[in-house]
Amino acid sequence: MARFLALCIMLVPGILAAWGIKLMRDMMFGVLNAPFQSLSLQFLCGLVFFAGGLSFVAGFIFYRDRKRSKVQERFQKRRKTS
């Protein structure tokens, strides 16, 4: 059940990033999509969607790998020594 929930959580930002790539590509070919008023606004929103989706997915994978100690030593959490 936990893996299915993680998959569902990862689908939303993945789809958002893919839509962002599509918006940027459409701007390059001069295709204006419905909710946007100008091509530059469409490109900017596409860039934000892509960057946000990619950063969420990357952060999720990094957090999971850090928890399982599968990252390099410099990315491991530092333990407090007191």
Question: What does it look like?
Answer:
- With 82 residues, the chain is an all-alpha fold.
- The protein has one domain (2-69).
- It has helices at 2-28, 39-67.
- Helix 1 (2-28) runs antiparallel to helix 2 (39-67).
- The longest helix is centred in the middle third of the chain and has 29 residues, at 39-67.
- It starts with a helix and ends in a 15-residue tail after the last helix.
- The model has no long low-confidence stretch (mean pLDDT 91).
Question: Could you write a compact summary of the structure shown?
Answer:
The chain is an all-alpha fold.
Q: Would you spell out the secondary-structure blueprint of this structure?
A:
Blueprint: H1 2-28, H2 39-67
Number of strands: 0
Straight-line distance between termini: 39 Å
Number of domains: 1
Helix- and strand-based class?
mainly alpha
Average pLDDT rating: 91
What global shape is seen?
elongated
Please mark out the parts with pLDDT under 50 across 5 or more consecutive residues, or reply none. none
Query: What percentage of residues falls in helices of 4 or more residues?
Result: 55-70%
Tell me the radius of gyration. 18 Å
Number of helices: 2
- SSE order: HH
Q: Give the biggest beta sheet.
A: none
Q: What is the strand content?
A: under 5%
